[in-house]
Design a protein that fits this description.
Elements lengths: L5 H11 L8 E2 L2 H7 L2 E6 L9 H10 L10 E4 L3 H13 L3 E6 L4 H9 L3 E5 L3 H15 L2 E2 L6 H17 L5 E5 L4 H13 L4 E7 L4 H8 L21 H10 L2 E5 L1 H15 L5 H12 L1 H4 L3 E6 L15
Parallel strand pairs: 2-10, 3-4, 3-6, 4-5, 7-8, 7-10, 8-9
Antiparallel strand pairs: 1-2
Helix pairs in contact: 1-3, 1-7, 3-4, 3-7, 4-5, 7-8, 8-10, 11-12
Length: 317
C-alpha cells in the first residue's frame, strides 16, 4: 500500500481548501490552571460537517478521476466519516453509499441523509460492518474510501496539524484521539516533517484500548465490538495507520468512561463549545497525566461536534 508523504498533504491542502474551514484555535485560562500546561484547542468541531474527517473525505472525492464519478463512493463508518464523505460527494455531485451501525447516534444518521448519503445499517461490530459493506460495494461498484486506512484520507487529515503548526508557534506536544488512527496518522505525517521535535500523543478510551495494547505489544491487536461512550473510537488500527503509529507516536494514553465524560462536560461548561465524547478523550488523558504535560505548550485536537443533544452522557436516563 502506498504510504503518503508530506507532498501529498500539501497537495491535499490546495485541493480541499474551497470545501473546508480553517478552524480556529481556542484557549482556556481555567483549564490551563487545572492542568499546569498551556493548551491550544484546534476546534475541528467547527469544521464543515462538524468533523475533521471532512478533510480526508474531500481529498479522496476530489482526487477521483472523471471516469469513476458515475458510480460514486462508498464507505463504512460509525458516523463522522459517513457524513463527511456524504458532504464531499454532494459537493461533487456524485452518489455516496454508507454502511453504519444501527446503534450509531441519530444525529450522525440524520446528517448523512441531510447531505444526500444513502445508509445501509449493520450490527455494531467491525466484522458485521465489513461484511455488509462488501455487499454494498459489489452491488454499486463504487470507489471505496476507507475511513482511515486510505492514503488520500490520511493526507487530508494531515492538513489539520499543518494549520495548527501555523497558528501556534513553539508547541511541545500534540494530543489527538485514536480509533482507527486516521487523524493521528495525518498528525504524524505532517509534524514529523515540519516540526519533528513535537511529541505526538494518542488518547484512547480504556474500554476501547486496542491501539494502546497494540502499541505496547508491537503489533496490531484488534477488538471487534468495544463498548464506550466515545463512539467514534471503536474501530481498530489497520496496516497503514499502524505504520505511522508505530513509527512516530510518543505514547498512547487512556482514560476511563467517567474521566471522558467529566472532560467533555468541563469543555462544554468552561469553553462553551459543543463537542462529542470522542473529542474529550485528549483532555481527559491530559488531566490524568498532569506531570507529563506540566509547563508545556500542548496542541489538543477536538475532532468533532456531532453529538446527540437528547442523550448527553451526564444526563440521567
Amino acid at each position: 500500500m502506498y504510504i503518503p508523504t508530506f507532498a501529498d498533504v500539501e497537495a491535499a491542502h490546495e485541493r480541499v481548501r474551497p470545501y473546508i474551514h480553517r478552524t480556529p484555535v481556542l484557549t482556556s485560562s481555567f483549564i490551563n490552571n487545572m492542568t499546569g500546561a498551556e493548551l491550544f484547542f484546534k476546534c475541528e468541531n467547527f469544521q464543515k460537517a462538524a468533523a475533521f474527517k471532512v478533510r480526508g473525505a474531500c481529498n479522496a472525492v476530489f482526487s477521483l478521476p472523471d471516469d469513476m464519478l458515475e458510480k460514486g463512493v462508498a464507505t463504512h463508518s460509525s458516523g463522522n466519516h459517513a457524513l463527511s464523505l456524504s458532504y464531499a460527494a454532494g459537493r461533487r455531485g456524485i452518489p455516496c453509499n454508507v454502511v453504519m451501525p444501527r446503534t450509531a447516534p441519530q444525529a450522525k444518521k440524520d446528517a448523512v441523509r441531510g447531505y444526500g448519503g444513502k445508509i445501509t445499517e449493520c450490527e455494531p461490530s467491525t466484522s458485521s460492518r465489513e461484511a455488509v459493506f462488501a455487499e454494498i460495494q459489489a452491488a454499486t461498484g463504487a470507489d471505496f474510501v476507507h475511513p482511515y486506512n486510505d492514503p488520500r484520507v490520511i493526507a487530508g487529515q494531515g492538513t489539520c496539524s499543518r494549520e495548527l503548526a501555523e497558528q501556534v508557534e513553539g508547541l511541545d506536544a500534540v494530543v489527538a484521539p485514536i480509533g482507527g488512527g486516521g487523524m493521528i496518522s495525518g498528525t504524524c505525517l505532517t509534524l514529523s516533517t515540519i516540526a519533528p521535535k513535537v511529541q505526538i500523543f494518542a488518547a484512547e478510551p480504556e474500554q476501547a484500548d486496542d491501539a494502546y495494547r497494540s502499541f505496547k505489544a508491537g503489533h496490531i491487536i484488534a477488538d471487534d465490538a468495544p463498548v464506550t461512550v466515545a463512539d467514534g473510537l471503536k474501530v481498530p488500527l489497520k496496516e497503514l495507520t499502524w505504520h505511522f503509529v508505530s513509527t512516530y507516536v510518543t505514547d498512547i494514553l487512556t482514560a476511563s468512561e467517567q474521566e471522558i465524560i467529566d472532560a467533555m462536560r468541563l469543555i462544554w461548561a468552561r469553553m462553551k463549545i459543543v463537542m462529542e465524547p470522542s473529542s474529550a478523550v485528549p483532555l481527559a488523558t491530559i488531566l490524568k497525566n498532569r506531570d507529563l504535560f506540566a509547563g508545556k505548550r500542548v496542541g489538543v485536537i477536538i475532532t468533532g461536534g456531532n453529538v446527540d443533544l437528547d442523550k448527553l452522557p451526564w444526563l440521567k436516563a
